[in-house]
Description:
Chain B is an all-alpha fold. Chain B is 77% helix and 1% strand. Chain B has helices spanning 2-7, 9-34, 39-44, 53-63, 69-81, 95-130, 135-149, 152-167, 183-217, 220-228, 232-260, 264-269, 275-285, 288-316, and strands spanning 87-88, 93-94. Chains B and C meet through helix 3, helix 4, helix 6, helix 8 and helix 9 of B and helix 1, strand 10, helix 6 and helix 12 of C.
Amino acid sequence: MTDISQTPALAPGGGRTMERVRLLLRSRSGLTGLIIVVLLAVLSLVSAFGLLPFDPLAQDPPSRLQPPSAVHWFGTDQFGRDVFSRVAAGVANSALISVVAVAFATVVGTVCGLIAGFYRGFSDGAITAVTNVLFAFPPLLLALSLASVFERNWFTIAVAIAIVYVPIFIRVTRGPVLSLREVEYVKAAKSTGQSRMATMFRHVLPNITSIIIVQVTLSLSWAVLTEASLSFLGLGTPPPAPSLGSMIFEARTLVTIAPWTMIAPGVIVVLLVVGLNLLGDGLRDSLDPRNRGKR
Amino acid sequence: MFRQLLRNSVLRRILAALGTLLGVAIFVFLMLRAIPGDQISSGLGTEAAALTPSQRAALESYYGLDQPLIVQFFSWLGNIFTGNLGFSSRAQTSVLDLTLAALPVTFELAIFSIVIALAIGIPLGMLSASKPDSFRDGVGQVVGLAGLSIPAFLLGTALLAILASSFGFNPNGQAYATLFEDPLLNLQQMLLPSIVLGFGIAAPIMRTTRTAVLEIRSNDFIRTARAKGVPPRRLQVRHVLGNALVPIVTMTGLQFGYLLGGAVVVEQIFSLPGIGRQVLLGIQQKEYALVQSTVLVIALAFVIVNLLTDLLYRVIDPRVRAA
Amino acid sequence: MSTARWASLGALTATGLAFALVVTGCSAPASDPKPSAGAAGGDLVIGVTSDPDTLFPWKATQFQAVNVLQNLYGTLTEFDEDLNVVPGLAESWDVSEDGLTLTFHLREGVTFADGSTFGSEDVKYSLDAIAAEATAAVARSSLASVTAVEATDENTVTLTLSAPDAALPANLAVINMAMLSSDDTEEGLNTTPNGTGPFILDDRKASQSITLAKNVDYWGDTALLDTVEFRVIPDESSIVSAMQSGNVQLAVFDDPLVAQTAEGANVEVATTPQLSYHALQLNATRGDLADVNVRLAMQCAIDRQEVLDTAALGEGEVTGPITSPAYKSDPDARPCPERDLDKAAEYLKKAGKEDGVTIKTIVSQGEYATSVNEAQNLKAQLADAKITLDLEVLESGAFVDRWIAADFDAAVALNGGRPDPDGMYGRYFTSTGNLNKVAGYSSPELDALFAEGRQTADPDKRKDIYAQVSENLEDNAAWIWLFTSYTYTATASTVDGFVPMVNGSLQYLRTTSIK
């Protein structure tokens, strides 16, 4: 069960990127997460550039339901399609949707959070009200309703998921911004006549970057799970584009005669989410010394 | 006087909650109508092509689809205040009755899931925190990570397939029995779904416990108590766990709220007639009143749970009494 | 450490409890009691993926609703297992010399479930209501030729027709033509069905189950089963699990893989061909498709068996337009019985489109299992002939909207079939048919043929006429008919006497018994 409103407790800080990266690489889990994510990213790129051993959509009925072999590394499914290629394409698909969704949510959410926290007043009230309304919806139901509104393709699904996660980013940025407003040098900037928007972007934003980065990795893992769950319900990526969720859905009937059709996408989706979570944890540790070892 | 009232934070919270609910009502109303298709085409499918214009008009009036949107919205909202949540023509029951039947199912599932999650999460969290960065800690972390990463639909599907085909265990294949009708069957039917959901929520609870315990451990008053010679077990429970309760309760309340929102996928896989399934069916069949009212009920439940958690929070920790 | 000890203790207790629950669950098979003697008695559980969306027969189109209603209500005529039209509530009927008068002699002593008697006034009421636009009855167009209905006496009803309609007796056998009591209203019937069928409603739990009990006052042979429960299990593989554990004794599947996993020690699976057909509908009123040569090029570029093999694993048969056994089309009676890319190129040249054409095609997703795979294979095959299928995969709500509005060049569709060819295609391919807009094709020849088919009741003549209709449709490539697939009826070995029907009807529940 995803917990989309758990926000990392971080104190904002600035600079020292190299040291942070070194800390990340030193943390066992962060490193593991990074390796996993990089491997799967490479797999997605391989798929995106069409370098897969088989076409994920090509059917070959004579070779249906074959167990893993040297030719078909993860075996074939009920239509003779190569499971490995489909899984790789599924990862690419999940990656695409999640990245776009989280990018969208990050930009919109951060900007709104900044505006709400910095300008306060009416814009704060309005943005907070919208955030509360969106939060009151069960996330999966909201995503599937939104995804049904427009013709379903990877982009509209990404937007639907993005809308579900925008409130988190708003909440995550608004808090620290509220306290940062009162910090000395921000007040000083205001008094020197710098426009509020410039202050916002120049002084406040860099300080909350670390929080945003952690939230991004966590949101990526939630987005992957949401897309997979939507596809499982038949309301996600429309076929024939392979999706890890729909592959698992189709494998339900096959699990007793051809378990590899469920094991392969299942293991990969878990691996992807684990990698992103570990990376997120590692980032959180490296970006805030106070939380080191206290995950 | 009015301003004084507004300053009262509890009242403010309630007003904000009502405002949120209104926002939810408007949002879901509009969103539903943006989805292509309506109850006529969903009910008749392609046969709807054979309708003559006056047949279609008759059907639209029957389903209340012919009135202007504003009228539809306010008549629905107005009816809610009189307890009429709408009518489902598919089920031929009022939405209120449907919801009253479905809510206890999801509620029961949520409770069992939370219980399992707490039973797994808290001990594991304490185990992890007892010796940070040790093997024990590693085990706890791995279990927590697995819970967060294994999708509920994968776990549920795999468990059901394996248990049903290898051991013939499939109580969910029988008609759903409420706790009062047949307690044994009901518990059996709730077992797998609660485990699947509980496992997923155990992770955040475990992490919260671990963090909270570690933080409190290093606090002065614990060291003082230990120095005073308080036996370690009492220390653990009374002092450490007692203070860690605050964040754990908050986290639990949050998860409970989300569970109420319908563990849709689990209810689908295990054929549990809960709230999540009700909303999903309503969206598929384009039964607007059903979805709108049910979503509103879910949002209301979520808001109430939040308020209660907040209150509980203040009761447990007297330091947190300020607005 | 105490924490560790607690944790393990807690874990052990919990696991123990869970284990106990599982063990008690394992040992309990179907909780339905078995009958003590003979073939009569017993309760049957049928696994279905959703419950009926309506209990009002005149508006029911979803098969879950139709399946249940067929057992609750009666119609004037019925189909037997070979799809011959046989007497139902009407014991017999006569057609006048000129074919303009149809007289039904009703069965006597028939009662509705509430005890009231069934008579000619109920028939008149029902037929008039179905024909009325305000009722929004689905079968209204089947009564297009009926100008007047008269209850000549207690047990006789006379229909006056504007033109002979040989298809009418068959069209009266569908559940959308159910005979309702003149005292009942739609609202009332939606909660409490009141029919003349072999079963009556026993219990209903919305979204969970609907249970029927045998109607002891049924005019025919009383049903053998005591109760039939349609239990809602949304997931098909969960239905299979339920059959394997003995909780469910009968289920109908469309997916051959699911059927395969269901087959086992105590579950038998029967394969039945269906009347419904998969087709690539073409809209001959739009763009390039208006030229018959383009359509014929498409016909020649497609190997139907390949579509069947890749999309449905070969589970089905290649078909022509008419799927009803009595009038079945010869799938090879068309310009291109086999794939012929040369001929396809020739046709395109004749149309002046040697460089190819692009056809915007809509496909539904989620409605039935094979839609997208069919579309994909069609796209691949047509690409070889320089015909590009521009696929739009739509969710069912959006697909239905577009289909109804005929807003497509081509559509990959699964359409229902009917035993009588006029009932099946009259609406689509006559210029006055209410689905002609969707069909996108009509011609004076077809209009004449359909009219002729309605004129004569002679079965041999009609076979000949509809063979011509079929040929005409294929020669003009009005649509591209692909294949019919199978339906799989899984029954527990304790179930006896159930006959799956080609039109998907579950009416033989009345002769089913459980050992």
